């Protein structure tokens, strides 16, 4: 029997780092931190939908809580002269106070722009969801997206799977399109994965995206011979 493993978790500690980086010796504060992290992620995913925000990383120190947002549309997140960013920061602070009222850490919000959005699986999944929600033919959306992704220099393979009542059909089914190779079992393979949902009048369509961006090799250390 095979086991399906998440491509990100499969490579943690090898070529991937944790998305929440902090240490808590006390079990009570550890539970609280995990709860706060999950609440922040759920709020931001819902609040920033449509801004192509793919990565939410959280770092903690004794006095600071830092949230790093990777987005393909930083202008929408920051707003004119930083209005949206200031408003978002206050909203996140309110959410944190509801979950952890005793947490007095200062909140820092860093917004990072992605250079090549087509190489990020989450952004590609958002693009497909937008196309489907605009009632575009699903096969055209799949084909155009695959061609756009594979055209990027870093990308060596892409696979997109959508499932649900495609085209408003009575029975749900699955359609898949693949170009290049996706070596899921190779630890050094830099594979980005994302799952998204497109909400349509006749139901929800699930979207899964795998993008292979080549192998990652550690730099060989040069040892001086004495």
Architecture overview:
The protein is of the alpha/beta class and 226 residues long. It has a four-stranded mixed sheet with strand order 1-2-3-4. Strands 6-5-8-7 form a four-stranded antiparallel sheet, with helices on one face. The chain has five helices and eight strands. The protein folds into two domains: 18-113, GMP Synthetase, Chain A, domain 3 (2-Layer Sandwich), CATH 3.30.300; 117-215, Ribosomal protein S3, C-terminal domain (Ribosomal protein S3 C-terminal domain).
Task: Describe the structure concisely.
The chain has 226 residues and is an alpha/beta fold.
What portion of the residues fall into strands of 2 or more residues?
25-35%
Q: What would you call the shape?
A: globular
Number of strands: 8
Q: Structural class per helix/strand content?
A: alpha/beta
Biggest beta-sheet profile? 4 strands, mixed
CATH class of the largest domain: Alpha Beta
Number of domains: 2
CATH architecture tag of the largest domain: 2-Layer Sandwich
Q: Percent range for helical residues?
A: 25-40%
Order of helices and strands: EHEEHHEHHEEEE
Would you tell me the overall average pLDDT? 90
Unreliable spans are 220-226
First and last CA, distance? 53 Å
> Could you tell me the radius of gyration in angstroms?
20 Å
Spatial arrangement of strands, main beta sheet: 1-2-3-4
- The CATH H-level homologous superfamily of the largest domain: Ribosomal protein S3, C-terminal domain
The fold-level CATH name of the largest domain is Ribosomal protein S3 C-terminal domain
So how many helices?
5
């Amino acid at each position: 029997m095979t086991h399906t493993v998440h491509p990100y978790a499969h490579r943690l500690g090898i070529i991937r780092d944790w998305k929440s980086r902090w240490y808590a010796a006390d079990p009570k504060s550890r539970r609280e931190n995990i709860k706060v992290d999950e609440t922040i992620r759920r709020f931001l995913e819902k609040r920033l939908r449509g801004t192509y925000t793919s990565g939410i990383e959280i770092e903690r120190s004794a006095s600071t809580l830092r949230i790093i947002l990777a987005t393909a549309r930083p202008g929408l997140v920051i707003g004119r002269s930083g209005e949206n960013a200031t408003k978002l920061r206050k909203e996140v602070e309110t959410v944190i106070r509801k979950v952890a009222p005793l947490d007095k850490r200062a909140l820092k919000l860093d917004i990072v722009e992605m250079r090549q959005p087509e190489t990020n699986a989450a952004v590609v999944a958002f693009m497909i969801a937008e196309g489907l929600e605009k009632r575009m033919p699903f096969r055209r959306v799949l084909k155009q997206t695959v061609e756009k992704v594979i055209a990027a220099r870093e990308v060596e393979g892409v696979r997109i799977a959508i499932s649900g009542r495609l085209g408003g059909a009575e029975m749900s089914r699955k359609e898949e399109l693949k170009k290049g190779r996706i070596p899921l079992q190779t630890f050094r393979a830099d594979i980005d994965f994302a799952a998204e949902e497109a909400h349509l009048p006749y139901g929800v369509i699930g979207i899964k995206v795998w993008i292979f961006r080549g192998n990652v090799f550690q730099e060989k250390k040069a040892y001086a011979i004495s």
